[in-house]
Each structure stands twice: as C-alpha cells, then as structure tokens.
Amino acid sequence: MPLLAARHLTKRFPGVVALDTVNFELQAGEIHALCGENGAGKSTLIKLLSGIHPRGSYEGDLLVDDHPVRFSSIRDAETAGIAVITQEFALIDELSVAENIFLGRPPRRSWRVDWLEMHRRAAALLLDFGLAVAPEAPVRTLGIGQKQLIEIVRAMDKRTRVLVLDEPTAALTGAEVAVLLDHLRRLRAQGTACIYISHKLDEVFALADRITVLRDGQSVVTLARSETTIPSVIKHMVGREITDLYPRRAGRLEALPDCAENLLEVRHLTVAPSRGEAPFLHDISFAIRPGEVLGFGGLMGAGRTELMMHVFGAWGHRIGGEVTLRGQPYINPTPGNSIARGLVLATEDRRRYGLVLEQSVGFNLSLSSLRAVTRVPARIDQAGEYVRNQQFFESLRIKAPGQFTRTAGLSGGNQQKVVLGKALMTAPAVVMLDEPTRGIDVGAKLEVYELVNRLTSEGRAVILVSSELPELIGMSDRIIMLAAGRIGGEFSRRDFHPEKLLAAAMGRSAA
Amino acid sequence: MKSRQLLQNLAMPLALLAICLFFATRESAFLGPRNLTQLLVEFSITGTLALGMFMILLTGQIDLSVGSGVGLIGGIAAVLIFHHGWSPPAAMLVAFVAAIGLWSAMGALIVRERIPSFIITLGGLLIFKGLFWLVIQNSTVPVSRGDEDNLYSLLTTYYLSKYVGLALGAGVLLLLALLTWSTRQTRQAHGLPVPSASQAIFVWLGATVAVLTLVLVCNQFRGVPLTLLILASTAGAVYFLTRHTPFGRYLYAIGGNEEAAVLSGIAVKRVLIGAYALMGVAVALTGFMTTAYSGASTTTVGDLMELDAIAACVIGGTALRGGRGSVVGVIFGALIMTSLLNGMTLLAVSPEAKFIARGVVLTLAVWMDVKLGRR
Q1: Cα atoms in the Cβ-side hemisphere of radius 13 Å centred on A355
Q2: What residue spans define the domains of chain A?
Q3: Beta-strand runs (E) in A262-381
C-alpha cells in the first residue's frame, strides 16, 4: 500500500496543460526522486501534493494511505503529514533558531510562551540532528546549509511522514550536501518517506530508491535506481521529436565569410553579484557574428539571465574579463550606454522588468528610443513618435485596439511583443532575448521565431536564452550551455544532440 | 465605463462647486471680489508648491521638507535685504540658487546612497526648520526696509491694471485656440486620434468663460494678482515638461515601474535628481510668495505646507506610489485645498478645528488614492 499516491492528475493553466494525467506513488520509507527538464511539471506536481494549488483547481485524485484526500491549503497537507521545503526558505531571519522551529505553534504555559520549554525542546531536536547551533542564535547568522537543516528539523517536529525537497542542494557546498544526504538517509531508516527533486543526477543516483521522470507534464516512467543509469534517465527526460515548429532558416551562416567581424565579444568574464562577494559567473568567453543566433541554455540558476544582465550593464560587479562591442572595448556598461551602442536586452520577466503596465502600448514601445523623436531643445514630436510606433505596432502584429490601449490589459504574447518592439526600436546590432517565448502561446511563439529570422537576415546578431532545449536546438546556429556559472560546453549545429546538451548543462562533459 | 469615467472627470469640479456653495451660503463675502482675489493669491502659493511636489510624487518618491524649506528660502532672502541691505533681485537670486543646491543635494543623497526619500526629507524638514530659525534669529524680518515697496514685497501686492489683465486673458485664450488648432491639424495629418471638433470647441469655451470671469472678478477689486501669473507660468512649464519632453515620460516610467525604467536605458538617478532640483525651484518661488504674503519672515512661515501640497496632488488624482497624475488635476486639488482653508478662516473657524479638518481632508484623499490604486 503506497503512503501517498497521485492518480490521473491534470492541472491546467490558461493556455497550458502543466500536468497531464500524471500518476505517482510513494512508498513508506523510500526516497523517490522526481526528474525532468525545466517546465516538465515537477513544481506543479509538488504544489498539488502540498495544497498550494487547492482542491478543485485540478482533476484527478490524491490518496494518503489509500484514502482520498482533498487539501485546500498548505495547512491541510501538513496535517496529513506532508511538508515541503522549497528553494526559498520559509524562515524568518531576525528570529532565533528555536522561534523558527516552533513558528506558529510555540509551547505555551497558559497564555504565555514557555520560553524555557521551547529552548529545551529545540536543543534536543538540534542535538538529535547533530547540529552545533544554539537555539537562541538568530537564523540570519546561519549558513545556507544550516538553514536548510533547520527547515527539516521543523518539519520533523511536526510529525511529518512525507518530506518534499525541491532542489535542496542548489545553493549548498559539497560538504553541506554530504551532511544533508546523510540526514535524509537516516530519516529514511526511521521510516520517513521523501520526494526529492534535483537537477543533479549524481545526487539522485547516490540517494534515491526510485526515480520518476516527468516530461511535458506527463509522467513518463518510474525506474528503480538499481536498474537504470544516468544516460538512460537523461534520454527519458529529453526524448521527444524536434519538428518544424522552429523555422530557423539554415544556410545563412554558411554564407558568411569566416573573417566577418564579431559584433560582440566577451573574454574571460568573471562577475560577482556585488562588490566583495564571491564570483557567480566564472571565466566566460564567447563571441557572436552578424547574422548569427547564439543560443544560451542551462538549468535554472546556471547564470544565463545574470550573464545577459551583466553584459547589458544592469547586474553584478565585474572582477575580471573584458567585453568588445562592435570592435570597440566596452567598459563600464550601463543600460543607457548599451542601447546607445547598439546592444539591447529584452528581459525575461516582462511584467517585472519589461513594461510599465499602467501606461499605454505606445508609451512602452518608444520608451527606450525617445531620443529619436525628440526635437531641439527637448520636445517630443508626438506625431512622429506615433508614426514610428505604428510601424512596429503593425509589423509585430500586436493585437490591441491601438497604441493607446493600456499595456496591462494585453495577453502575455502581445505584452511580449511590446517588450520586443521596445528593444527593436533602438535599432540594435546585437539583440539579447531572454526567454522570449516563456508563457506565450504557440502562434505567438512562431511569430517570435520569424522575427529572429528577420533580424539575422538584416545582419543583426541575436543571443537567444531559453530553458526549452527544442527551442534552442531549433533556432540557434550555435549553443553554449552554462552550468553553475561556467561554460559547460559549446556546440555547433551538427553537434546538437539533446543528451549532450543536457549533460553539459549538468556539468558532465559527456553522457 | 463611459459614464464612470465622466463621473471621475467631473468629481473634482463638482467637489469644488459644493465647497464654494457651502461657504457662500454661510458667508456671502466668500464670493466677494476682495476675498476671491485673496483666495487666488493663496491658491497660487499652494499650487506652485504642489506642482513641484507633483513631479516628485510621479516618480513614487516624496518630499516632506518643503514646508520648512519654504520658510528657510524666504527667510534667507529677507535677511539679506533687511539686515544686510542687499538689493532684492540679488538676495532672491542667492536664495534661489541655495534652494536648487539644497534640493539637488537631497536628491543625490536619496539616489546615490539609497536612503528612502521619506527619511531624507524628514531629516530635511527638521534641519531646514533649525537653519531657518537660525537665519532669522527667531525674530521677525520684514521683506523690505521701511515701508517702501521692493521686488520682494511686490510679489504678492502687485496687481495688473484692468486693461493689461484683460489683454493678457485674451492673449492666453487666443494662444490656447491656436495651439489646439495646430496640434489638431498635425495629429489628424498623421492619423492620430483627436477629440471631436465640438468637444474641442466646448473645452475652449469653458476655458474662455473661466478666464474671463477670473479677470473680471479680479478687476472688481484691484486686478489680476501677479502671483497668479507665476502660478500660470509654473503650471505651463510643468505641463510641457511632463507631457512633451523625455524627462516627463521618464518621471511616469520610473513611478510606474522603476526596474523596467532602468532596463529601458533611462538614467533613473539623473532624472530623480532633476526632479528634486525642480522641487527646489518650486520651493524658492513658493518661499518668496509666502513670505511676501505675510509681509515678513517669521518662525511660522511655511508650517505644514508640505502636507497641503501633498494633499493637493493626491486630491487631484496623483498616485502616491507614482506613475499616475496630471497637472490639471493638481491645479484643481490646490484650488479645493485653498478654498477649504480660506473658507474656514473667513468663517473664523477655530485653529483646532482647522487642523482637524485639514487632517480629515488629507486622510480622505489618501484613502481615495488607495481605493483607486487597487482597481
């Protein structure tokens, strides 16, 4: 009898089926790994299991001990013994370790908090986990690995039977990972079941009893660890046909002479989030020529967005390395300078970084290129601006009543087109597109791809950052995979094998 | 949708009308030429400061220091004239430059050191108040020596002669008609949407009635006050800045989504410092007018004016979190705020009750802002 089972789970978001009749079983006392590419449905599945997506928002059944359960909140799931530990810590930095462990349910003596009892019990729990941390210590003084363990301690004190860990080792050092894995093995021996999500297949194979692979929202296969291998799991993760969905016009690059000047060249770039911190991007070099599409892939947190933002001048503190833009050394980048020199970035999170949603479509379109329609001394030629906006409004086929429509009311795909339009109106030589097709429908995606083709045929260079391997493979002339802030591998078109690319993204030279 | 929008557009004129009717029924002198002229001077003072505040609020920042600043800048000029015998233009120029310097410095502190504007300008409120009292030595410093008139004192006591007032009014209306017509032509030529001809004429007729009534009422007393011209030029300048220049677009963009503004290549820090420098200009103008209006620099000049300015903006539909608002709204807001204060003074409402009424109006305005912001 499985401890926890999911039967035919289907979860729809507007325009997307995130989970498609997924089946999953968890036995008591097993560690069960969930594997899959970004967007395969892992996070959605655990959000269902943990009550974040409440009952009624999905189809199918959840069973605990063979009894159907219907969670309407995280609290319900916790009552049933399921605790989720996510990538973002649910700890309050300014409170002590003990206060965090007993957050929301402190031991009481009548109406007062029983501090003595709280610290006594916290100390006992910490001792049990072999954690050398004082219960009174503020959580902010702990390292990331210790914080992770505090969360697990908290979960265990709540009589948790199913521990769900979402990328628990993403930010841990090697030693911390070893400690964490030891604890998980010990908890398994005590009968706690664990759902373990990780991109790091080495860890998965060192720990899990069984592995379930998700792909495109479907549960593809469940394998016993002892009967499978890493390459075979990767194959299941990727295994799909790449079709004509990606209309990259090949042959363009071959027409280019080898000596064509690089539009953008990055050499040995090492960057920290801010001054005085440890580097996040290490020794990154690449170059891109006119008419080329350079794809950037990698797992979440590999540093793709950060790399683009840094080159654009909006992120990080450069420790070493240099950038050459259109033959000129480019020092001290800022977004304004980048745009003036012909380098533009269309951001990944359009609602947060891309658009002024309250304002009109036209306002957003021309925001980066107002200089082109400003007459001496400082007057915007509003008619000229309108005409110029209208060209892009029409050529991008933005579906809106007009330029004066509020941007907030547009669909995701049309908002994306506004972001792209704003970038293209600066007449760039190098266009960096960060996840340009995230969250938009197939038709709009196709239009974005056509746009990429048009840009390169005009001799511009496009850097395409994408989490979707098929998109990268379909649209790029060359692909660089980033792995943990480093270049994991560079591939030219004839080497575009999904397995190889994914292996490079996981920091494994060959699969 | 359409009727709701109409209601929103008419809300302010209707509120203003209601306030005026209320005071007029209680005290007929409220609508008399003398009181209306006085009201216009007070309106010019509050309005000028509110226009400066408007640009700050558009970016999502705030400035609490302007009340003390108004006193300080007016005080500096007064002391230079009365105690040191400077010529009024020189004294005012020095005070003016000081205001721009101080506000640029505050702006630079806010953007470069990333200290919230609320804190910096709260510090400014106290520091400027202290400096102000230091400068005037806690005494009363007249704006001119003896009883003679000078540029400073004339700011609020000079009135245009009847015919100049009329001619100016006519000129403004003619200019408005010309501008409306020519923008209409260019917009139509490029296929931009334009309001219907009857609508444009209606708006112009409305403006004509308003301007002519204003001039005629003022002419019944002493004529159009100079301060009204200062407000009108400030309003024109701020309107042009916010509607027709990249700087103005950037103010709206920063208030709407600062991160997006940064990534769109806008020099956000420079724009913010610019907004504070312009606030300095507004503070200097208001400082001169307020001090001249009270005849001398005394310790209470400028008290709580920052709150009136903020209230005027918010009543006029400026969002406190930035990105939304218009010059016309701010003008109406200032008019509403001034009418309330003036009417209460006329009815000899006790200072206690006036404080409470101001607080209630400010709270209501912010409450409305929150409500609207959630839509």
Answers
A1: 26
A2: 4-238, 243-342+428-511, 356-425
A3: 264-272, 281-288, 293-298, 317-325, 328-329, 343-346, 374-375, 379-380
Assigned token pair, A116 = 């003595």
Give pairs for B134-137: CB < 8 Å, separation 24+. Answer: B135/B72, B135/B75, B135/B76, B135/B79, B136/B75, B136/B78, B136/B79, B136/B297, B136/B298, B136/B299
Other beta carbons within 10 Å of A175 = 9
Residue from the list B240, B265, B324 with its beta carbon closest to the beta carbon of A336: B265
DSSP state, residue B301: T
pLDDT tens digits along B201-223: 998 999 999 999 999 999 999 99
Q: Which has more confidence, A239 or A113?
A: A113
Map A463-503 to HEC letters. Answer: EEECCCHHHHHHHCCEEEEEECCEEEEEEEHHHCCHHHHHH
Query: CA-nearest residue of chain B to A378?
Result: B245
Give the best residue of B114, B192, B250, B264 to mutate against chain A (max A CB count within 10 A). B264
Cβ-Cβ contacts under 8 Å, B262 against chain A: 314, 335
Nearest to B271 by CA among B116, B69, B2, B56: B56
Neighbours of B304 (CB within 10 A): 12
- Residues in chain A within 8 Å Cβ distance of B263: 312, 314, 335, 345, 347, 353-354
- What is the value of pTM for the model shown? 0.81
What Rg, from alpha-carbon coordinates, does chain A have?
Answer: 25
Domain boundaries A4-238, CATH class = alpha beta
CA-wise closest residue to B335 among B112, B33, B45, B3? B45
Residues of B in contact with A356 (CB under 8 A): 252-253, 256-257, 260-261, 323
Task: Give CA separation, A137 vs A74, A93, A145, A151, A325, in Å.
Answer: 28, 10, 15, 15, 49
Question: Which fold is adopted by the domain B15-158+225-373?
Answer: ABC transporter involved in vitamin B12 uptake, BtuC (1.10.3470)
Asked whether residue B375 carries a pLDDT value surpassing 50, the answer given is no
pLDDT above 70: percentage of residues in chain B: 97
Residues of chain A contacting residue B191, judged by C-beta atoms under 8 Å apart? 386-387, 390
Over the range A115-152, which residues count as b (16 or more CB within 10 Å of their CB) and which as e? beebbebbbebbeebebebebeeebeebeebbbbbbbb
Distance CA B285, CA B44 (A): 10
Q: Give the C-alpha separation, A97 to A114, whole Å.
A: 15
Distance CA A446, CA B36 (A): 65
CA distance A298 to A505: 5
Rounded to the nearest angstrom, the gap between the alpha carbon of residue B108 and the centroid of all alpha carbons in its chain is 23
Cα Rg of chain B, angstroms: 21
Rounded to an integer, the average pLDDT of A34-53 is 84
Asked, colleague to colleague, whether A4-238 and A243-342+428-511 share their fold, the answer is yes
Predicted local distance difference test score (pLDDT) of residue B149: 86
pLDDT given at position A249: 64
How far, in Å, CA of A319 to CA of A404, rounded?
Answer: 44
**HEC states along A233-282?**
HHHHHHCCCCCCCCCCCCCCCCCCCCCCCCCEEEEEEEEECCCCCCCCEE
Task: Say if domain A243-342+428-511 classifies as CATH 3.40.50.300.
Answer: yes
Residue B83 touches chain A, beta carbons under 8 Å: no
- Put simply, whether B266 touches A (Cβ < 8 Å) is yes
* Integer Cα distance of B281 and B98 in angstroms: 10
